[in-house]
Each structure stands twice: as C-alpha cells, then as structure tokens.
Known about the structure:
Shape: elongated
CATH topology of the domain at 108-360: Rhopdopsin 7-helix transmembrane proteins
Low-confidence stretches: 1-21, 23-62, 143-150
CATH architecture of the domain at 108-360: Up-down Bundle
Oligomer: single chain
Amino acid sequence: MGRRMGEKQHQKHDPGRGTGRDSTKRGRRGSASSEVGKSRRKETTAEHFGHISTKKELESSPSRSVLRLYTIDEVPSYLCDNASILTGYRMNYTTEMCVRSVFALHNETFNIWTHLFGFVVFVVVITFFFVGVLVPSLFHHQVSSNGVQSASQLSRDSLSEYRWPTLIVFAALAFGALTCMLCSATFHTLIPHECPTVYRWAHVLDYFGITFMVVGSFLPMCYMCFACTPSLKWGYMGMIFFFGIGGILGPCFRSWTDPSYMRFKIAFYVCMVGSGLIPITHIYLILPLNISTAVVEGLLLMMVLYGVGVVVYVFQVPEVFYPGRFDIYLSSHQLWHIFVLAAALVHFFNCAAMYVNMHSLPLNC
Length: 365
C-alpha cells in the first residue's frame, strides 16, 4: 500500500509524464489550430482568387472571363507610348480575350474599328470598280452607263497593250489598301497578347501594311501619268520600290519596334509618303492644265490629309492638352486612323477617275 501510495505520489509529481501528456495535448491543439488556419487561408484565397485546381477551371476562372482594364501605371512601357492616355489599357490577354475585346470598350476600340470599317468599305468600293468598270472595259471593251465610255474610247490595240499592266497596278493599289486596313486592325486587336512574340509580329504586320499601301498608291499614278515617258515612269516607280524595300526589311529588326526609334520611323514614313510630291509636281508641269488640274487636286488633297494626320499623331493632339479626357474617344491615334482612311479613299477614287478619263491622259503616245 505504501508502495502504491508512493507510486501514486510519484505519478502525480512526475514532471516527465505530465509534460508529455501536456505537450501531446498542446501538439494536438497546435495541429488543429494549424489546420484551421490553413483552412481559413484557403477560404480567403478562394474568395479572393477563386478556386483553381485544373486547366479547365483556370480557363473558366473569373480572371480569364472578365476583360480587365488597367491604368498607365500598371502596364509595361511598350503598351503606353502616349503619356496622355491614362486609362483603358489591356494587358496579358489570351487570343480569345483579344478577340472578345474587339467588341468591348477600351482605349484601342476605335483604333480597331476605324480600320475594320475601312476594310469593309474598300472591299465594297474595289469590288464595284473592278467588276463594274475595270474588267469589263479592259477585257470586253464594253461601253456602259457608269463612266466607262471614256476608257473605252481607246482602241482595241491600245487596250491590248495596256490591259495587263493596268490591271496589275490597280490590283497593287487594291491590295495595299486592304492589307493596310486589315493589318492595322489586327495589330490593335493583339496589342495586349500575353505572348511577346505574337505582339511583335502583329506590330511587324502593321508596318508591312503601311508600306504596301504607300507603294500600291504610287503605281497607278506613275503608270498612267508618265506612260509616254518610260524613263520617268520607271524612275519614280523605282524610287518608291526603294522605300518599299526599307519598309519591309526594317520591321524585321527588333529595334524597329522599339519606342526609342519612334522619331526615326516617323521620319522614314514621312519621307516615303512625301516623296510623292516630286511626281505630283512633275505631273502638273507635263500635262495640259485642263487635264492636270483635277488629277493634281486629288493628289494634293490626299497629301494634305496624310500631312494633317501626321501632325495630329506626332504632337498627340488633343489629349496632350487634356490628359485622361480622350482615353476612349477621339485620341490622336484614332484621328490619325480616320485621316489615313480618308486619304486612301480620296486617292482610290482619284485613280479610278484617271482610268475612266484615260483618253485624256497620254497613253496613246
């Protein structure tokens, strides 16, 4: 009995045994608290980000379904080349999100739609001109009520001689206009793509489109107005082809799309388009005044539209005066797109008028 009492007292006062049981209990309580903490953190994380455990859930998660917009302070520098546009930026979009953003409102919406609209307009105008005017007069020598009478006054021999070259230069004009509109709309759609390679090549395509349109715009003018002076015709065509080679090779270098080269690129394209003033002046000098006036007026109107557009774009008017006010509507880049579309349409109709009145131009040398 004494031994039992001693054992009981020993057990009662044994620090080792008490500590073991207490530590076990504390361990269990600590483990339980840890599990509760983890559970709470999971709930908090799930509430904040949504539960994401599989690829399918990732693709359908709120972060991928909502087209979030960002401010200028949240996006990388290559996405904000205009310090006066403060909001409405897209970033880290998938291809599907980029496509959906075409129908959403952000600071690129009107950049996309001005040239998507331009593409559709050119499809209609080009189809009407080729099907209703150019092809019938070149290949069927038809006289219709839509203005082909003048073009059809050329002899069959003359039409045979100029048939394919005429078709080629107008096809180049049409291809350049359509390519410029489509490549521009594509680039502005894919600007926020999460893959840098997609962004870069979309940017390259945009520059290609500009080059194709400028080169294509020169060809009908030079071909028809300098038909009797082959040296001038090929000289001016060679000049624009020289610029065209630069406009194709340049964007293939990474430095071309670097914002630090912006001034150089603007100067290059201004010189490329501005070089058209040389043949325009020559046309005015060599053609009779009654013929050259309408032709030159159309060409000068095109140049003025391009010029005003460049000034608006370079000096970032009007948002430079009211930063943040023109983030979504009527920013300088959007106005630049409108001027480009207007200039391209003016030039196409002017070239079509040259063809319709081809008997007045020196094609029968």
